[in-house]
Amino acid sequence: MDFQVVVLAGGTSKKLMPIVSQEVPKPLLPVANRPVLSYVLEQLEHSDLKDLIVVVEGADAAFRVAPWISGAYADRLHVEANCVSSVLYTLLDPVATVPEDVGTAGALRAIAHHLTANDILVVSGDLVSDVPPGAVAAAHRRHDAAVTTMLCSAPVPGPTESGSSAGKDKVKKPAVYDIIGLDPLKQFLLYIATGAEVEKGIRIHKSILRAVGQMEIRADLMDAHMYAFKRSVLQEVLVQKDKFQSLKQDVLPYLVRSQLKSEVLLNGVPQAEENGNEKVSYQNNQAAISRILSNASTLSFHERYASDDKETSPVRRTHKCCVYIANSSKYCVRLNSIQAFSDINRDVIGEANHLSGYSFSDDNNVIHPSAQLGSKTTVGSHCMLGEGSQMGDKCSVKRSVIGPHCRIGSNVKIANSVIMNHVTIGDGCSIQGSIICSNVQLQERAVLRNCQVGEGFVVTAGSEHKGESLARK
After folding, report:
1. Could you tell me the residue range of the domain that residue 381 belongs to?
2. Which residues contact 390 (CB under 8 A, 6 or more apart)?
3. What is the mean pLDDT of residues 132-150?
4. Which CATH number belongs to the domain containing residue 451 in this structure?
5. Residue 137 domain-assigned (yes or no)
6. Do 318 and 371 share a domain, yes or no?
7. pLDDT tens per residue across span 166-177
8. Residue 297 φ/ψ, nearest 5 degrees
9. Count of CB atoms within 10 A of residue 71's CB?
10. How many domains does the chain have?
């Protein structure tokens, strides 16, 4: 399709401490015992989008990610091996490295000179989804758009029925999603407000409504961080707006505002119209806002684009900002928080197990043939037990992922948890709603409830922890 793909894989995200580390950066966080980055790469492969640049933040993270890509995808994907920092890599290290905290737009700006295809597909490396990226690319081409944004159903906020938790992250403000304005045919992106804008309550000026004609306001859709750009438009914005750091917060809203050459849209509303606002407040009850704001005497945005009559058209066409809205039955979640890490692991061994790549048993679980179970030990449905792991007698595992080469004693109870590789758990331990990173040691009779335990930490015998983040200094 003559698309070049940029995968923004991230690095050691501070929001994911302590479950990320130098040894396990964000792209390698395990989801059902597979690196999260593998889910995006395989979806791209299935869509025959194989010309990639994988961008990793920080040399330490790149040092871990590059060998894994080389080993897992050497014969399957063409991954660009370009260097964009002072750190030099060989052809066996197929990642581009950018400094940490440059932002998504900054990362693209750093590799812009390597972008050569007519169209660029940018996707976040933390996206776990069964939406075909090829469908987004095809929609972009069909509309001849400057940018096409993938939107999917926003996840339902709050604690899950399974009790999965992320400790302190569970007690948080109600989730606030994007406010998105669409044309009645749901093809054009006419308005977007994110983050702090939404929390404060947004104002949509009547002058904008007059310019676009009709607009449907939605708060039940999520920007999935998959964008198709016309390369010439993207590179022009990155050069001209050299302070832009975020694709979602900066580049996308700018393109949306500028898709009509209207002084109102580009430069803000004149002072005389400040009192002519429609205010749309996002209510914390999470109900979807879906209503039509219309000026009946004007043409719709779609009708204006369909018109070639320059004299009758009230605005001049410049470029199109389009959307691809995934079917509500599709799975689409980003691993951008500790809670999301727990939720995705739960889903991929549960209702979304078609994403895992594993064959589930008649008991609806996955137990590696090399794993060993003691007498009267039970591994329930929606569970996974990794290669070479051993469990003692009278253990119980419910809705949990246990990684490879773990050593688990007797009378251990594990529920709604993720346990990474090479973890040692002593006799009589109880673990619920927790994330335990690699090489952790839990001494006998330790109790964890809704905790995260960082790499290599030792939990002392008989200790009890609830809602804590435990990590080595």
Report:
1. 367-470
2. 371, 372, 406, 407, 408
3. 95
4. 2.160.10.10
5. yes
6. no
7. 444 444 444 557
8. -85, -5
9. 9
10. 2
Same domain, 59 and 149: yes
CA–CA gap between residue 385 and residue 231 (Å, rounded): 44
Structure tokens at 258: 């500028």
Q: Position of tokens 């698309």?
A: 3
Q: What is the pLDDT of residues 423-455, one digit of tens each?
A: 999 999 999 999 999 999 999 999 999 999 999
